[in-house]
Design a protein that fits this description.
The chain has 21 helices and six strands. The protein is α+β, with helices and mostly antiparallel strands. α7 packs antiparallel against α8 (198-210), α13 packs antiparallel against α14 (293-306) and α18 (359-371) packs parallel to α20 (391-406). Mean pLDDT is 92; it is low at 1-19.
Length: 427
């Protein structure tokens, strides 16, 4: 018995990645059917958590968020499930008079259970080859989607999403006065969001984007879709265009049909910022009919960031590297940086980095080689550092060598902006 206790303690120490092991405070249902059955019985929402292994944002969600005491308390008022394909060390969880072997990463369920949920969730809500994780989806007991957000979000935002989902399912389950008070605040903010003074307008638009209440977000949507002030419309589009925001996806996709190049292009840039693979079909469709070089370039960049594994997106991006339009080629070069490694992609970038006559294209090519961590390009980068006449190109080549050696960072991923117009100027 003592040996067993020692082995379990050692296992939990390993599971906790060197820290004192804490069991998950969020308890998970064993199946989706069980979750929706409980949701119907108790009149509560279902929270589907999509998590992968061996990635820092997902580890933060698994080891920090799901072990947060306050989130644990809030999650008692939702039927929660984990969708994860991974296999993890397990341990004995004692509940009352019984003991059950459960997953050490998530607790309360087995790895086989969260793997089965992952397969079913993929069929229902995560089609295609690219699934963004971490991701949180909220449904009412009938299965209607309430809210959804991908990538790592602030823990406070996740708590607010859960509370709002509770309110949507059963307004009596939360402090309704507080919800309505926040909605009134949003309506007051909305007045400033229509101001002619940008210093007043911009923070108001950002504040509207931060509210979880769908009625508050509708105020922001109305501004983006209005036909009156194009400047306010573009700023509203930017405010709602936050990485992983599924609620902005249908709004921005619909704005791709706008006749005005300014609005259409800002919608494309917004989709690039969302970085959601579901944007690809609409972007590919628009590209076929788009006449503006500027918008075409924006579409290529958006595809590179949103759907780098989409075969149609890859084929288009590779093809347009030979475009006669400088603007198209420049944004296409950025898109090439986000595609998976392939001999063709790397060949294009190596040639661009060393031989292109345009310094901006050379700079983006150099940056992209660093993003790909292309070790076979080290000699090219050394030659660029030694002989290129443009300081910015030499500087990014030095950074690219370091990225190949040590890995990339978020700061490095934004390094292409040295050579292209940034989002503010993409109008």
């Amino acid at each position: 018995m003592l040996l067993r206790a020692v082995l379990v303690s050692a296992c939990l120490f390993f599971l906790g990645k060197g820290d004192t092991y804490k069991p998950a405070t969020v308890r998970f249902e064993p199946t989706l059917d069980a979750a929706f059955a409980r949701a119907k019985k108790e009149k509560i929402p279902v929270m589907v958590c999509v998590v992968m292994d061996n990635e820092s944002a997902n580890d933060t969600v698994a080891w920090t968020y799901y072990r947060d005491p306050e989130l644990g308390e809030l999650s008692k008022h939702a039927a929660c499930v984990i969708a994860s394909i991974g296999t993890h060390a397990d341990y004995d969880e004692v509940r009352g008079d019984s003991t059950r072997r459960v997953c050490g990463r998530f607790g309360s369920i087995t790895c086989a259970e969260h793997q089965a949920i992952e397969m079913e969730a993929r069929k229902r809500w995560l089609p295609g080859d690219s699934t963004v994780a971490p991701q949180h989806l909220f449904f009412d007991p009938s299965g209607k989607e309430i809210a959804r957000h991908a990538y790592l979000i602030d823990l406070g935002k996740l708590k607010k999403m859960l509370q709002m989902a509770r309110y949507v399912v059963d307004p009596t389950s939360v402090d309704r006065a507080l919800i309505e008070k926040e909605l009134q605040e949003a309506r007051d903010v909305y007045k400033n969001a229509m101001s002619k003074n940008q210093a007043t307008r911009k923070p108001a638009l950002d504040a509207l984007a931060a509210y979880e209440d769908p009625r508050a977000f509708k105020l922001l949507t109305d501004l983006a879709e209005s036909k009156t002030d194009d400047l306010i419309r573009t700023e509203a589009i930017r405010a709602m265009s936050q990485k992983g925001s599924y609620r902005a996806l249908p709004i921005l996709t619909n704005l791709l049909k706008e006749p005005k190049v300014l609005i259409r292009n800002n919608a494309v840039v917004g989709l690039e910022r969302l970085k959601l693979p579901e944007a690809a079909p609409a972007l590919l469709k628009l590209y076929k009919s788009e006449q503006s070089d500027r918008v075409q370039g924006s579409i290529l960049r958006a595809l590179g960031k949103c759907a780098p594994k989409n075969p149609d997106a890859i084929a288009l991006i590779v093809k347009e590297s030979a475009s006669k339009s400088y603007l198209t080629r420049l944004d296409d070069a950025v898109a090439l940086g986000f595609l998976p490694d392939s001999p063709k992609v790397l060949e294009i970038l190596r040639t661009m980095a060393e031989k292109d006559d345009n310094s901006n294209l050379r700079g983006v090519g150099v940056w992209a080689l660093g993003l790909h961590r292309d070790k076979d390009a080290i000699e090219i980068l050394n030659r660029v550092i030694a002989s290129d006449k443009v300081l910015e190109v030499k500087t990014v080549a030095t950074a690219a060598l370091k990225a190949i050696q040590d890995g990339t960072s978020e700061e490095y991923e934004d390094g292409f902006q040295t050579f292209v117009r940034d989002e503010v100027g993409r109008e």
